[in-house]
Amino acid sequence: MLPVKSALELEQLRDSIIAGRDPAKPSIALCSGSGCHAYGSEKVAAAFEEEIQRRGLAGKVDFRRTGCHGLCEKGPVVIIYPNDICYVQVAVGDVPEILAETIENGRAVERLLYVDPVTQERIVSEKDIPFYKYQNRLIFGNNPKISPKHIEDYIALGGYSALSKVLTQMTPEQVLDEVDRANVRGRGGAGFPAGKKWRTCREAPGDIKYVAVNCDEGDPGAYMDRSLMEGNPHEILEGLIIGAYTIGAHEGFIYIRAEYPLAVDNLRVALRQAEEYGFLGEDILGSGFNFKVVVHRGAGAFVSGESSALMTSIEGKAGEPRPKYVRTSVVGIWDRPTCLNNVETWANIPVIINEGAEWYRSLGTKGSSGTKIFSLVGKVNNTGLVEVPMGMTLRDIVFKIGGGIPNGKKFKAVQTGGPSGGCIPEDQLDVPVDFDELTKLGSMMGSGGMIVMDEDTCMVDMARYFLEFLSDESCGKCIPCRVGIGVMLQILNNICEGKGKPGDIEILEDVAKVVKEGSLCALGTTAANPVLTTLRYFRSEYEEHINNQRCPAGVCKSLIRYHIKPEACRACLLCLENCSMMAISGWLRRVHIIDQEKCNKCGTCLEICPPLYNAVEKIWFKELPEPVAAGTKVPRLREGVR
Amino acid sequence: MSEVTLKINGEEVKVEEGTSLIEVARKAKANVPSLCYNRKLSPFGACRLCMVEVIKDGKSRLVASCVYPAEEGIEVQTESERVVSFRKGLLELMLAAAPDVKVIQNYAKRYGVEQPRFTIEKQNICVLCGLCVRYCAEIKQAHAIGFQSRGTNRKVVFLPQIALKICPDCKECLSVCPTKQLPEIYREQVELLLENNAGDSASS
Amino acid sequence: MEFDLIDEIIDGYKCDQSKLVQIFLDVQIKTRWLSPETLKHISDRLNLPLSQLYHVASFYKAFHLEPRGRNVLAVCVGTACHVRGAQRILDKASEIIGTPPDSTTADEKFSLDTVNCLGCCALGPVVVMNGETHGKVQVSQVEELLRNCK
After folding, report:
1. Which residues of B touch A309 (CB under 8 A)?
2. Quick one: pLDDT band at residue A411, thresholds 50, 70, 90?
3. In what order do the strands lie in the sheet with B75-77?
4. Where are the alpha helices (DSSP H) in A474-549?
5. Whose CA is closest to A531, among A380, A410, A415?
6. What is the pLDDT of residues A591-631, one digit of tens each?
């Protein structure tokens, strides 16, 4: 009965898929997203498949490799339906027990359950884990229930019903009104209203128009687009096809980073299946509408995420932004009107069509409706992907969902918006997160990276880090961006090395202004944000570096020293043998001494010194103690210490 | 093409729709500085010296006049306070990057920029205006010189595979270079190679 | 010889000039780097100026115009890894391998790469040794990681 030729046939297909499934049959969902994959979920998957066969459970239990579930900190994650039991940090050795206990006997394996770090209670169901409890996983929530390589899973959950509704019951104008009224803003960074962009493109002159997906997720520290594309590609495709119908495009492009091979694979499988089922190609669902999709892999250039640069790149050229003052929705790929939206934006479209604009607007804030997916990473307990309604405070995200800062350290800042964003300090944490509020703080929403920093993070170093990234990633075409970023970076390097001069801060501010006003594209016009926000909220750290040659966080290499406390050293030779600079002298029973001239401050000695001795210290807040004489004997062993 | 009316430095002018503002300014005898503009070549928008202030629907912004098209009813300021302050900052950057280039020194003088407050470790006399690249591609259609790399590593390179054959008889691009650096690049990348090759074949 | 492989790829894209980046990606999977001969050949086949090919090949980080090492260690220097100490991992690796970041040793044994986010930020700092991802890496583990390379 494939391809599906009408709305009715789609419903019949859906019914038959659902009817073929026993809701009481246990189903195992193993996260195989990028994080869990790196934790070895591939081996766990093989173990499940083998063990299911061995126990004769084939046919009695379903097993699925799914996209990212979100709680990457505790990967690999396994969820067992219909009882909704969630296991974390599952290893190959746990597989037989899970099958024996949970599948065969219906009992939870206590030791694999999530432990609440505060109450020490074990939590059975995913939805009760604090990390998930405060989320609203509108776009991301189906990931655990779907095998991205099986379109039936998506259809069973109501997939492509929005497309069928659009093609059979709505005119393009009606779809446009719905998207407009939903006030969905672009999730890729700038927050431009999608409806407005669609309308511009629809009304732009020209017979041939394109739609395009931006999956060039270049912001370091952000991986929500990757996880959506890997985990639920049909959700994005469905949105894209709806967009194409609305705008009047018959060809679409998906620009995707080549660094995301799994996402590329899953997308290609999804495209093949969508075509086979009749959601792509000629006469989609019998509506007479034709649409095809071309995949374009990026090759590693952050600036190519900028809309005009992305289009230049799709044309096969170096992905540099165009200097012209004309919107890509009017003059885009091959100078034709092109409607480009980010992965997450497209994924929002089916929900809006299914649930209606009014319902959608009830989520979030007045200016920013719906939810937003963030990648909550850095110095935070529960790292992972979180989806919350717009308007939740940063504090709730970092502390309630993220579970606060590890190792009892103090929160210092959260960086949002990627390299074009800014660092937000503690006293602004109660600000509700939406497009406008973050901009007011001097940062931006960006694509949704949220990097938490604790007291051990140097804010000058952070600004330096982002500028280094940007100077590498700038295309180098226009002078303000190329030279301006270079000058700011050079000044920041000097400050971090303790060679800052009075007046440096003023120069930074002046150059930032030139870069902001004069650069050709958004990479340049926002490049100064990390510098400007750290100056705004953490100016005293700059001043400490410049005036006192001191890095208050103890990060900047030139401003720290490693020192072995003679009274604590047990002369175990560990640090000495592991020092690749051969900067440590001493021998058995003789105190080890670091030669500061030779030391390159890699910190291996501190890391490797047994916690029992704790003899190596990092010094940045006081003078280095006078070195002891070479050959000083280690103190006598105290009672009880070996 | 239809005509549009706009104001430039307070004076009303009529021009063809879509004319670049830098051309409009020239018509109005306003001297807008630029390093990468040449009316015979496609506009490039890289040096940003030609930025002017455009007031449209009550909003003001800086735009590169070489790529911004003339529109009905806009107001253009080529030497407003905002423009001048931006150019000063930009020229300080340029002067630090290429202190010995005459044309930059002259512009710096015009805008009262003296010694930059910082020195740049990685100086580059070539400002990557791309005039030579565009000239070779658009006028000569030879593509013997092109851009390579990105960011601070971006540079113009004569491709030996093409340049060794055709450049010695052309060299027209050398005169379009605003910084006068191109002859030196040419010497390094093409002439020296040719001399070496000649030396090699003579000795063998 | 090896141009057969390249031609197969180019034909697969029907000699479409706009597929240049895709062709480079596919060719490089086979040849590991883009040699001058390869570029010249693709330029002829696609009828594109060689200068444009060099511009594209040197613009994107994924393309290599120099031979690559037999072993590749990629250190993630994305923001999440940076705040968790990626720089120290990179310094250590560079010191052991004996080549600066983003370069290849003279004997072509190692390439040391930096990448700006591998999308597994929860595991930072992350390195990828010959395709295998390692998370929460400590400086003292770097030597071990590099040990068994030929």
Report:
1. none
2. very high
3. B11-16, B3-8, B75-77, B51-56, B59-64
4. 479-496, 504-518, 522-525, 529-548
5. A415
6. 999 999 999 888 889 989 999 999 999 998 778 888 888 88
pLDDT at A418 over 90: no
Best mutation target, B159, B173, B189, to test chain C (most C CBs within 10 A)? B159
* CB contacts, 8 Å: B156 with chain A: none
Instruction: Tell me whether residues B143 and C51 touch, CB distance under 8 A.
Output: yes
Token pair of C81 as six digits? 């890894």
Instruction: Give pLDDT tens digits for B62-119.
Output: 999 999 999 999 999 999 999 999 999 999 999 999 999 999 999 999 999 999 999 9
Residues 63-92, chain C, touching B (beta carbon < 8 A): none
The number of beta carbons lying within 10 Å of the beta carbon of residue A591 is 25
Q: How far apart are CA A255 and CA A335, in angstroms?
A: 17
How far does C30 lie from chain B, in Å, by closest CA? 23
pLDDT-derived band at A218 (thresholds 50, 70, 90) equals: confident
Residue A556 in tokens: 């900047």
Q: Do A518 and B62 touch (CB under 8 A)?
A: yes
* Residue in C60, C117, C118 closest to A299 by CB: C60
Q: How far is A523 from chain C (nearest CA, A)?
A: 16
What is the model's pTM?
0.93
| Subunit partners of chain C (3 or more CB pairs within 8 A) | A, B
ipTM (interface pTM): 0.95
Chains that touch B (3 or more CB pairs under 8 A): A, C
3-state secondary structure chain B: CCEEEEEECCEEEEEECCCEHHHHHHHCCCCCCCCCCCCCCCCCCCCCCCEEEEEECCEEEEEECCCCECCCCCEEECCCHHHHHHHHHHHHHHHHHCCCCHHHHHHHHHCCCCCCCCCCCCCCCCCCCCHHHHHHHHHCCCCCEEEECCHHHCEEEECHHHHHHHHHHCCHHHHHCCCCCHHHHHHHHHHHHHHHHHHHHHHC
In three-state secondary structure terms, A120 is: coil
Rounded to whole angstroms, the Cα distance separating A334 from A316 reads: 11
CA gap C114, B153 in Å, rounded: 17
B51 to chain A: which residues are within 8 Å by CB?
517-518
Q: What distance in Å separates residue C139's CA from the closest CA in chain B?
A: 30
Which site among B49, B87, B90 would you substitute to test the A interface, given the most A Cβ atoms closer than 10 Å to its Cβ? B90
